[in-house]
Structure formats: C-alpha cells, structure tokens
C-alpha cells in the first residue's frame, strides 16, 4: 500500500486534529435548539456537556500512552471509528438519551485522539526535518477547530435546512476522508511491550514542581471554567439574557473566546511561557468584568468586546500554564504531570458548568452568569498575584496548548 510523504502526512494529521475539535464544539450552537425540541432544563443541557468532558478525561488517563506501545495509526483509526459512531448517534438523535450517549462516545473518541494526534505531528515533523512546525500546529489547531465547529454549526443552524442533521452529515463526510488519509500515513514508532500496563491511569505532581503547580492552579481554573461556561451555556445566555435568537450569534460567542485564543496562542509561540502568566490573568479578569458589564446593562456589543479580551487571556493562559509546567518538570516527569494538569483543567471545564446549570434551573440564568463570571474574575486576580511567584528558569521549552471541547 502506498504511503504519504511526511509533509503530506503532517498536513493530513493536522487537518484531522482540527476536524476532531470542530466536531467537539459543533453541539454548542445546537444546545438551544435541542433544548427547545426536547424540552429539557439548563441542568440537563450542562449534563450533556459535562458527560463529554468526563468521558474525555477517562480516555486521556487510560489511553494516553497507548500509542507509544501499539503505534499511532491503530489508536487514531480507532478514535476515528468511535467518532463516526458518535456522529451517527447525533444524526439519529430524537431525545436527551441519544445526546447523552453520543457525547459519551464522542468524549472517549476525542480523548484518545487528542492524546495521540500531537505526538504523531511531532514524529512526522521530525521526519520532515521541520520539527518547529509541530509546536505551532499543536498550539493552534485545537482552538482553531473549536472556533470552526462553533462558527460553521452556527451558520448551518441559522441558514441551512435540517439544522440538527446536516452538520453531522458534513462532519461524517470529513471523517471518512480523515480515515482514508490516516490509513496512508507512515507509522512513526515501533511497537513495544507494556500496552496493558500503560492503560493504568497515572495522575500525580512530582515533588519538585509542586510549588509552581499550586501557583498556576487559579489561572488554570479561571480560564477553563470560563471556557466551560461559553461552550455550554453561551448560546442560552445570548438567547435569554440578550434576547438574540440568531444561532449564528450563538456560534460567534464561542468564536470570540476560543477563536481569539487560537490566534493569541499562535502569536505567542516562541515566547517564554512564565512571562505570560500575569498578563494572561489580567486579560482574563478584565475581559470577564467587561462581559459582566454587558450582561448587567443588556448590551451585547459590550459583552462581545469582553469576550474578545477574555479570549486573549484564554489563549495566553493555555500557552503559559502548560508551557510553564514543562519548564519545571524533568522529561521523565512530564507524562505524570500533564495527566494531572489535564485532569484538573477538564474538571474545571465541566463541573462549574454543571453547577451553573443547576443554579439556572432553580433560579434564573442572568444572576447565575453574573455569579459565575464574578468567581472567574476573582480567580484571575488571585492568579495575577501568584503568577509572580512561579519559580521558573530564564528560558523554557514551549508546549502545545491543551485541547477542549463543547
């Protein structure tokens, strides 16, 4: 069977990375539509959102290093197969139960893929004698995919027929192409024993980096909790608080945060991550406060400006937190450390959103959003103070921004 050259294979894997994350954020503009059709509460909505994240965490912890043992291609093809199953479930969904199952399967697929795609890109970039490309693509492709999925789905829901069907059909077609491309890429590692042992979850913080880890916890919580709010309840806030029922606007709400974050992460490549912790926290706090002012006054334009400013902080925070930790940990400690970072980040991404869903169901969405945003802003202020105390070397090795999904 013919094999793609490393540069072509790199482009194919990068496109697959973007497509996976686009599929993960596609439900965000649709949540309001599903909520109206299936008549469920904000709590149920955020539960549908959260089960995806929890399944993703489980897949990351269990299958995070599986490709190091059995090869990149088998894991990627398995993840694509599971993603196809999830998209078919979305395509057929006629109730909340279908959505829950679809999101669980999608979470497992995305977790396995995002544990393997960055490593595959690094391998292929090295074979193509352009190792620097992997860092840039790994840092921007996930956030770019999230923005693409939210924007594309918002456009389709607002202007195309069959809004709860067409987007999944198009994503399925793209995944078929991705599967064909991945089948033709060269395998980049040799199989080695220990596959079963690698499935045992490992989470921990090495003793030498615990002080730095504690110092970045507030900004990690603030940025990921804000992302969880936008990707779960963002569309509902636009519709209920601002009275705007255009689904494209709901998609643009997500794009304002994660799209800006993607551009920011790309622009910051090569910078020493630790120097960005305080500016990132300041931008997160300022953007969140401006957004809250928009919610209080009912001015969507003001809230949009706040979302863009917060997006600058979101992208900078993703780059700074994970990059800073990579400079503190020894190479043999990074796997365990990043498992802990991802776990904490995804818990911050999902659990507060579920709490907000409960609060919005029992009360009203506007005060829930205000309290949620206030907590995020407070955490960002604390992060700006603690960020000055992170013990980092003068230079560091940047790492890719982490992935997330709606």
Automatic annotation (TrEMBL):
Domain Major facilitator superfamily (MFS) profile residues, every copy: 8-391
InterPro entries: MFS, MFS_dom, MFS_trans_sf, MFS_Transporters
Keyword Cell membrane carried by entry: yes
Record's keyword terms, sorted: Cell membrane, Membrane, Transmembrane, Transmembrane helix, Transport
Spans traversing the lipid bilayer: 49-67, 74-92, 136-160, 166-186, 207-227, 247-268, 275-296, 302-325, 337-363, 369-387
Membrane topology note: Multi-pass membrane protein
PROSITE patterns: MFS
Subcellular location: Cell membrane
Pfam family, one: MFS_1
Main location class: membrane
Domain of life where this protein originates: Bacteria
Name of the protein this chain belongs to: MFS transporter
């Amino acid at each position: 069977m013919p094999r793609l050259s490393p540069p072509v294979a790199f482009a194919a894997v990068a496109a697959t990375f973007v497509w996976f994350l686009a599929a993960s954020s596609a439900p965000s503009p649709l949540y309001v539509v599903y909520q109206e059709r299936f008549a469920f509460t904000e709590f149920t909505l955020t539960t549908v959102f959260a089960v995806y994240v929890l399944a993703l965490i489980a897949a990351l912890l269990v299958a995070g290093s599986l490709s190091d043992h059995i090869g990149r291609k088998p894991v990627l093809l398995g993840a694509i197969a599971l993603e196809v199953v999830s998209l078919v479930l979305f395509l057929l969904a006629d109730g909340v139960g279908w959505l829950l199952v679809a999101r669980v399967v999608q979470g497992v697929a995305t977790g396995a893929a995002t544990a393997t795609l960055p490593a595959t890109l690094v391998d292929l970039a090295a074979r193509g004698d352009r190792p620097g490309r992997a860092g840039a693509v790994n840092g921007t492709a996930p956030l770019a995919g999230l923005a693409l999925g939210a924007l594309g789905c918002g456009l389709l829901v607002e202007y195309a027929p069959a809004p709860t069907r067409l987007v999944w059909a198009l994503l399925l077609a793209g995944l078929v192409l991705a599967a064909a491309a991945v089948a033709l890429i060269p395998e980049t590692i040799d199989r080695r024993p220990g596959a079963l042992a690698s499935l045992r979850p490992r989470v921990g913080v090495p003793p030498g980096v615990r002080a730095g880890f504690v110092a970045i916890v507030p900004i990690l919580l603030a940025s990921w909790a804000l992302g969880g709010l936008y990707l779960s309840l963002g569309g509902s806030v636009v519709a209920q608080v601002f009275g705007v029922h255009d689904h494209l606007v709901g998609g643009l709400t997500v794009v304002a945060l994660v799209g800006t974050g993607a551009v920011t992460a790309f622009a910051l490549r090569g910078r020493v991550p630790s120097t960005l912790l305080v500016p990132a926290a300041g931008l997160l706090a300022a953007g969140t406060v401006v957004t809250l002012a928009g919610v209080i006054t009912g001015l969507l334009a003001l809230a949009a400006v706040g979302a863009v400013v917060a997006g600058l902080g979101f992208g900078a925070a993703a780059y700074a937190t994970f990059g800073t930790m990579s400079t503190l940990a020894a190479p043999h400690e990074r796997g365990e450390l990043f498992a802990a970072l991802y776990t904490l980040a995804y818990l911050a991404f999902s659990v507060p959103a579920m709490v907000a869903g409960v609060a919005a169901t029992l009360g009203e969405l506007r005060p829930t959003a205000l309290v949620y945003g206030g907590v995020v802003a407070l955490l960002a202020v604390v992060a700006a103070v603690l960020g000055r105390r992170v013990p980092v070397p003068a230079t560091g090795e940047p790492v890719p921004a982490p992935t997330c999904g709606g």
